[in-house]
Amino acid sequence: MKPIPWSYTGLDRFVTCPRQFEAMNVLKTVKDVKGEQQLWGEYVHKKFEERQRDGWELPPELAEHEPYMHKLACLPGRHFTEQKVALSRNLTPCGFFDDNVWNRGVLDFVAIERHVAIIVDYKTGKVKPNLKQLALFALFIFHTYPQVTACYTRYYWTQTKQETEEEFLRGRIPEIWQKFLPDLKQYAEAFKLNIWQPRQSGLCHGWCPVTECEFWKPKRSK
After folding, report:
1. Domains in the chain and their CATH numbers?
2. How far is CA 175 from CA 103, 133, 148, 167, 180, in A?
């Protein structure tokens, strides 16, 4: 079986549990039911996009983020909001739904000025130390914009208004890809052999939608 195009979210789901990934992304026998937190995150992203792209005012419940939105709007260079990017297997840019697409992503905010790109990803959940998604976003920019030699990336945590930053340089592209290659090797192997092993975690206790899995259990009572 040919691997389907992957995204950071999809690959992360595969690493968490191949069985869940098969049900949700390959067979599509289970739908991802959006909870209140996920719906809120989509709302925040939409309002931030409208603020940056169209200059619309933030609604009252998000007005506290206006100083940060203004800060981004004042960055020099060309701006992109909710930019869809895609790469083919030979790491050349392609259309998001092209037949040869290998990897896809959506960048919340990007400002490119000559050889420098600033990438911002909005996060509405709890602060986490994992910067791997920022590394992938930097790779998208390096492969899409050959003139960019440095990517300054950051998460913007809306709950605390903190930023988590990381710098990536073009000369370290092979090293950055090494963050993903071991997982991608397992990803390709699962499709080749059509074997999707379940991986137990706390999600098995009622949080995973794949209820037919042998490890699924109801949520623990409080």
Report:
1. 58-179 (3.40.1350)
2. 18, 15, 17, 13, 10
